């Protein structure tokens, strides 16, 4: 009897020890899982922010380069040159292109840095050729530089995708670890049930409570992963879309235009680049504020969209109040209806916060292949024609070598 009591006491103590150990083990596992998930998510968020910051700074370089090619005085060229070199130096000094982590991430980082070096060299070559009035070499270098810039942005996107996949994979591994821990606890519970039914009841109750806590943690993790996926999608959109108007941005337009020109070249067809801005827009900002100005630009962007057909045309907001459009299979003989319609939709009276505006546009047009075969050349000539149109306002100019003005009268 005494022996049975001793055995029962020993068994009771063993069960208590198992229960206490299982409680400690499971709590420690939960803490480890939470820490691992937090580490993975924080690293992914930091790298994603770094990609966004890097792309923002890198994508300022082509804008400055484009302004450099348009500069018509030595002073302007020197001023923009200093801005360009400072922007490039800042990117390299801050080591924005260096990503550390797994071996695959290092490979992607090396790919980005290699193409950034190629892009930087072509930017400098473009500046040098432009300064020496070697327009052909400058255009060739600028066109090639867009390829390297696209590779840099593609590498950045691949780094974001890599981190997203890495988070999913590590989360899955953590879930497997949690499942394994749960199975261990179940084994301890079975031992407790066999050893002492009374103790098993409390152990089982404890496991149920802990299991519910784990489900809650997994549910919260799923919500966080969904938010991360949404943020990653927004990061990708920012690289190609103007968030004010919903149109493409400058980089996306230049990239698509370069590809489209290559396509129409192989098919021996025509095309037209249309460049325009809003007359007196600076006065709108100065008098009514930038918020009103932004609303007006958003309205103009919404009016432009119905004029575009994805099969034959596309458009973008270049920045400020400047917009660019491209129409395929269009010549100087049949461009007038398009331009008249564009002037018409811009001129529609617009009421914003009880203020009525009557916006007008000055439009410049350059034709492919008559006035250029590259995106840079066509945009430059369309921009020049637009500035001639601004002399009359609410008019358009078709670029030619004599800079003859043609307007709707």
Spatial arrangement of strands, main beta sheet:
2-3-1-6-7
Measured by DSSP, the beta-strand proportion falls in: 5-15%
Tally of discrete structural domains: 2
Counting helices, strands and paired strands, the structural category is alpha+beta
Helicity range of the residues?
over 70%
Question: Based on DSSP secondary structure assignment, what is the total number of beta strands?
Answer: 7
Q: What shape does the CA trace take?
A: elongated
Total helices: the number is 11
Radius of gyration: 32 Å
Instruction: Encode the helix/strand succession as letters.
Output: HHHHHHHEHHEEHEEEHE
Q: Calculate the terminal CA-CA distance, rounded to whole Å.
A: 118 Å
Spell out the key features of this protein.
single chain; 409 residues; alpha+beta; Alpha-Beta Plaits; 2 domains; two-stranded antiparallel sheet; 10% strand; disordered C terminus; Nucleotide_cyclase; membrane; transmembrane
